[in-house]
Structure formats: structure tokens, C-alpha cells
């Protein structure tokens, strides 16, 4: 993405100045992580104001600096843009790239195992396809927007993680990403303090289907079957993974070696497949099932 394309995508800019149009290598909000060719987006945090580092980013070779402070914008030299709302500008850039993306998008949520499952799915897909994986546990509004802005357009698959602390957040993120495939890793009591009970929490997690593209597929841990409503089944094709014999991917058996590795058998389409997982925690085996399913 060129500097001018990024500025145009941001929308509702107040001022901009471009000395030299060039390719943006990545978008960052952390002044410690910008590099030559980065677009540094300044946010005002609880402890510091990112606008204070905009000039430093440009001096270090940043392709563009996004300011929300007019005085600091005026002092900076180089490619720069002044916006009223940094989050909205970043989200708009991410939305632009998502609208141009030709690959398939996967979105994950759940009470546990989101990041691990995301990484396992990505690694399995990466054996045959080019895959973009969102960073770490960047799963809130800002994190997802940043990951969308950094989407690699030449990939075939993009994998995003979605988290929630309040009602409506998952639906909003899903409508932003518009995934083709969704995964619900499980429903537990994590974050339940913001919801009335586990049923309300489950409804929030399963709202991930609200933004799905048509003919999408939802993979669900079979321990969560009771939360899958008729409305969800109408919106998407539901497939299950877990230990139940009726699931599309069945965990048949798990054994551990003296070295601590796990050997397990997963059955799908009436065919057993044997896998080895080099990890000390057994729940990672369950996290691997969606990767096998997809």
C-alpha cells in the first residue's frame, strides 16, 4: 500500500503532507517497533502520548506518521497526516485492505485456547498455502484493526482472533472481518463477569457468525453443542470436533511418551489419522482438532 492510498483510505483527514509517495511496509502503534518504511499511528495512552514520537518515527525513516495533535503535526517533517480519530483511521485502512483481499478469512473465538488454536491452524495451512496470521493475542477492536491494516494481500488464507469483554464486541469484529470460516474453541467462565450467565456469554461468542460470508462454515467444540441455536444453524453450516462419535473430527485416543510428547488419533470421514504433538500440556491436543478439521 502506498502512502497516498493509505491516506485516502483513512477518510475524514484534517490535513496531510506528502513529500514522497512510497510503499508502506507495515503499520505500527508502538514507537519502539517502527522501522524504515513503517506507518506510525499515534495513539494517546494512559501513560504517554504517541504524538510525541511521530517526528522520531519520521526521522528514523518511517514512510508516514499519523497524528491527532495539530501542534506536533505542524512541527514534523516528512510524510504526515492529521486525523481526528486515530482508531477510526486505522480501522478504515484495515477495512480497505479487507475489501480488496482475495483469500479466505478465518476468525476464532472462545473462552480458552484462542491463540494456540490460531497458531496451530496457521501452521497446518502453511504447509500448502501462504498464510497471514494476526499477531499474538491482538483480539480487541484496536488489535484486530491493526492486524487487518497489516494484512498481506498475496496470501491465500488470513487467520484472526477475536476476544470480548462486553456484549456486542464479537458481532462488531465479525462484521468488520467478514470471515469465511469461524471457530469456537469452547465456552467457559472466562470473562463471565461482564455477562449475566454462561448462556449470555455463549450468545456473545456465537455472534461471530453474524458477519460471516454466505456459505460459511462454523467449527464448534462438541462440548458446546447445547449453545448452538436453530438460528445459528440457519446462518451457517455447523461442524463439530471433540470426543463425541457424531462429531466431524473425533479425538479417538491420546497417549503420552516418556519424553512428554503426545501421540493421538483423530478420525474424520471415517478415516483415522495419527498425529504427534510436541507439547507438555494435554489440552493442546484439543486445540489441534480445528486445524485438522479445516
Describe the structure.
The protein has 294 residues and is α/β, with parallel strands linked by helices. 31% of the residues lie in helices and 24% in strands. The protein contains ten helices and 14 strands. The strands form two sheets. The chain has a nine-stranded mixed β-sheet, with helices on both faces. The protein has a five-stranded mixed β-sheet with strand order 1-5-4-3-2. Helix 1 crosses helix 4, helix 4 (86-100) crosses helix 6 and helix 5 packs across helix 10 (283-293). It starts with a helix and ends with a helix.
How far apart are the first and last residues' alpha carbons, in Å?
30 Å
CATH class of the largest domain: Alpha Beta
Q: What strand line-up does the widest sheet have?
A: 7-8-6-9-10-11-12-13-14
* Classification by helices and strands: alpha/beta
By DSSP, the count of extended strands is 14
Radius of gyration: 21 Å
Helical content class: 25-40%
Main beta-sheet strand count, sense and barrel state = 9 strands, mixed
> How many structural domains in the coordinates?
2
Kindly report the average pLDDT value.
92
What is CATH's topology name of the largest domain? Answer: UDP-N-acetylmuramoyl-L-alanine:D-glutamate ligase
* Poorly predicted parts: none
Fourth-level CATH superfamily of the largest domain: Mur-like, catalytic domain
How do the SSEs run, as a string of H and E? HEEEHEHEHEHEHEHEHEHEEEEH
Shape: elongated
Strand content: 15-25%
Number of helices: 10
Q: Return the CATH architecture of the largest domain.
A: 3-Layer(aba) Sandwich
Amino acid at each position: 500500500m502506498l502512502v497516498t492510498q493509505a491516506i485516502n483510505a483513512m477518510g475524514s483527514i484534517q490535513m496531510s503532507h506528502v513529500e514522497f509517495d512510497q510503499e508502506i511496509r507495515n503499520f505500527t502503534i508502538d514507537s519502539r517497533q517502527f522501522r524504515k518504511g513503517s506507518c506510525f499511528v499515534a495513539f494517546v495512552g494512559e501513560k504517554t502520548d504517541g504524538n510525541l514520537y511521530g517526528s522520531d518515527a519520521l526521522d528514523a525513516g518511517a514512510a508516514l506518521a499519523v497524528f491527532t495533535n495539530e501542534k506536533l503535526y505542524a512541527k514534523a517533517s516528512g510524510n504526515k497526516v492529521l486525523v481526528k480519530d486515530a482508531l477510526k483511521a486505522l480501522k478504515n485502512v484495515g477495512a480497505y485492505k479487507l475489501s480488496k483481499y482475495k483469500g479466505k478469512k478465518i476468525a476464532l473465538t472462545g473462552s480458552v485456547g484462542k491463540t494456540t488454536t490460531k497458531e496451530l491452524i496457521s501452521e497446518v495451512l502453511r504447509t500448502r498455502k501462504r498464510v497471514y496470521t494476526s499477531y499474538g493475542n491482538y483480539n480487541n477492536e484496536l488489535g484486530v484493526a491493526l492486524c487487518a491494516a497489516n494484512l498481506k494481500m498475496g496470501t491465500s488464507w488470513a487467520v484472526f482472533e477475536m476476544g470480548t469483554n462486553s456484549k456486542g464486541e464479537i458481532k462488531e469484529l465479525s462484521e468488520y472481518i467478514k470471515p469465511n470460516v469461524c471457530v469456537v474453541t469452547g465456552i467457559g467462565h472466562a470473562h463471565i463477569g461482564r455477562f449475566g450467565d454462561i448462556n449470555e456469554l455463549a450468545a456473545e461468542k456465537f455472534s461471530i457468525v453474524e458477519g460471516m460470508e454466505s456459505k460459511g462454515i462454523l467449527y464448534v467444540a462438541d462440548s458446546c453443542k447445547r449453545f448452538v441455536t436453530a438460528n445459528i444453524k440457519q446462518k451457517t453450516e455447523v461442524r463439530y470436533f471433540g470426543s463425541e462419535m457424531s462429531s466431524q473430527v473425533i479425538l479417538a485416543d491420546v497417549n503420552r511418551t516418556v519424553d512428554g510428547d503426545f501421540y493421538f488419533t483423530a478420525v474424520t470421514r471415517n478415516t483415522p489419522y495419527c498425529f504427534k504433538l510436541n507439547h507438555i500440556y494435554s489440552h493442546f491436543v484439543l486445540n489441534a482438532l480445528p486445524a485438522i478439521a479445516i
